[in-house]
Amino acid sequence: MKFLFHIIPRLTGGGAETVLLRIVEEFSKSGTEQYVFTLQDATGDLYFNKISKYAKILDHKKNFNLVNETILKNPETPILAWMYPSILFSHRIKYQLKTNNPIIWNIRHSSFRWYQIYQKLALFGFGFYSRLRNPKIIYCAYRSKDIHEKYFFSKKKSVVIQNRLAKKMTSLEKNLENTQPPFLLYVGRYDPIKGPDRLIKIAREFFRKNENYSLTIAGGGWKDSMIPDGLKTKVFLAGNVSNISELYQKAAVLLFTSYTEGYPNVLVEASVSGTPIVGFEAGDSKLILHEYDLGYNVKNQKEFISLLTHITDTPPSSEKKASAIKKQLKILDFSLTVKEYKEFIAL
Question: Which of 141, 173, 284, 344 is 20 to 30 A from 147 (CA-CA)?
Fold first, then answer.
């Protein structure tokens, strides 16, 4: 029996947690026994019940002794540390317990914006620490690897393993007719790095000449007060949506406005749904959309509006969508990600 420990702050519905869920599930199918240690109580988190089907979940604060005992009983088991807090925790507990567990750093971020001074200083600290420890490092994106190595992260044992299609998507019935008015779609929590300011500007300009369209925003953190008065009747805040596949498949265009990203899962999910995409380049967005026949990267707002107008004026046929979906499903098959994780962790 093979063993693996995962350490992650929470089990919310973010990109890292989505990948963790699929990794835990697929590793379980191949006979790997896993424990997931959380740094905060995650019993009410979105993915707690789903992950608990495949791995034992222990919160370090509530089950301090049990976590320590589990690691002490398995002093050689690899620890996959998801995100920076987990990396620090993993090395601290290994030092305290005096075990030999190899620690794999799982980096989920790409870069920070100019005003995030503290985060950039912290990256230098992690970079120098990686030189001392020389750990195995997994980056979720090529952009992430490039950025971190500029902050002196060790290059000796690092690899890029892209998320690909981590979320399980559902398909609409083939003959289901979309009777809804046409709408644009944005998927993402409210966060300045996701470009909500860009989104509002683009929506305002586009609606001036396209009054029959609306904008649906799916994601947490959005409030009605964040939408300008002139757009409130055109914007629908859907919140966290359980069946996001339906929105992707019915939307006229997905708008991607992020300033920084690691591996933007939203582009993967939209592309395997046949959703036309217009977006600024961020993280590995250019690589994801390179082979996608209905995806476009832009450099400025003028180009964004121009392409958005073109797509809505001449939407792709159902045949073209089907062809694009088929190609993306092959390229973004999550089994490739699982294989790469197993090989790198040496399970």
Answer: 344
Contact 254, 276 (CB under 8 A): yes
pLDDT, tens only, 124-146: 999 999 999 999 999 999 999 99
First to last CA, the chain: 10
Half-sphere exposure at residue 193, Cβ-oriented, CA atoms within 13 angstroms = 14
What angle, 0 to 180 degrees and rounded to 10, lies between the N-to-C axes of helices 64-73 and 84-97? 70
User: What pLDDT does residue 1 have?
Assistant: 62
CA distance 130 to 56: 29
Q: Find where tokens 């199918």 sit.
A: 29
User: What domains, with CATH codes, occur in the chain?
Assistant: 2-164+333-345 (3.40.50.2000), 183-331 (3.40.50.2000)
Q: How far apart, in whole angstroms, are the C-alpha atoms of residue 180 and residue 299? A: 31
- The CA distance from 220 to 131, in Å, is 37
Cross-strand pairs, 2: 32
Would you give the DSSP letter of residue 185? E
Beta strands in 26-100 (DSSP E): 32-38, 56-59, 79-82
Pick from 203, 250, 255: which is nearest to 226 by CA? Answer: 203
pLDDT digits (tens, 9 = 90+) for 17-51: 999 999 999 999 999 999 999 999 999 999 999 99
Q: What would the two tokens of residue 233 be?
A: 């009747």
* Spans of the chain below 50 pLDDT: 175-176
* Residue count of the chain: 347
Q: How far is CA 152 from each of CA 22, 44, 155, 172, rounded to the nearest angstrom? A: 31, 37, 8, 47
Per-residue pLDDT, 119:
82
DSSP-derived 3-state class of residue 5: strand
Provide the pLDDT for residue 175: 46
Say how far apart CA 112 and CA 98 lie, in whole Å.
34
The helix, strand and coil proportions of the chain, stated in percent and rounded to the nearest 5, come to: 45, 20, 40
Q: Tokens standing for 343?
A: 């090989």
The answer to whether the beta carbons of residues 289 and 231 sit under 8 Å apart is no
Q: Is 111 exposed, middle or buried (0-12, 13-18, 19+ CB in 10 A)?
A: buried
